[in-house]
Design a protein that fits this description.
Layout: E1 9-17, E2 21-27, E3 34-35, E4 37-40, H1 47-59, E5 67-77, E6 92-102, E7 115-122, H2 123-129, H3 133-144
Parallel strand pairs: 1-6
Antiparallel strand pairs: 1-4, 2-3, 2-7, 5-6
Length: 145
């Protein structure tokens, strides 16, 4: 049986409020890995479709037309912790950035298989908490924009 590998392309969805708070999620594995909503594209979906799906799967939020494509991507090496999920020939991942603005904090329904806890933090603190440099830079783009 041939293994099914993940597509080396993903989305990052930074959720923020009008008050400048950013939602940060703590992964179950590896513990202590803080991030925004993120996930790999399925082989048959577009970045927007993946962002909408991941937003709902990880938070229970519906995009309701508020999901904004930043039209920005980053390319980074696939980390050893996730290496086995990808084909041996895949060494880099392409990440598509989206923003999701909310007027105020909303009730978040975490997926307990993926995230152990969540925090709403001021954007500058969220940027410091983000484990991934791409996530950190995406939050900093909010502050400068």
């Amino acid at each position: 049986m041939r293994p099914t590998y993940k597509r080396p392309e993903s989305v990052l969805v930074v959720i923020y409020t009008d008050r400048g708070e950013v939602l940060m999620l703590n992964r179950t594995q590896p513990r202590g890995f803080w991030q925004s909503v993120t996930g790999s594209l399925k082989w048959n979906e577009s970045p927007r479709q993946a962002a909408e799906r991941e937003l709902f799967e990880e938070t229970g939020l519906h995009h309701q037309g508020r999901l904004r494509d930043a039209r920005h991507t980053e390319r980074f090496p696939i980390l050893p912790a996730w290496r086995a999920r990808f084909a041996p020939s895949a060494h880099y991942n392409r990440e598509h950035l989206f923003y999701f603005r909310l007027p105020s904090r909303r009730l978040i329904r975490l997926n307990p298989r993926e995230h152990a806890e969540m925090r709403w933090l001021p954007a500058a603190q969220a940027a410091c908490k983000a484990t991934s440099w791409t996530n950190r830079n995406a939050i900093l783009r909010l502050l400068s924009g």
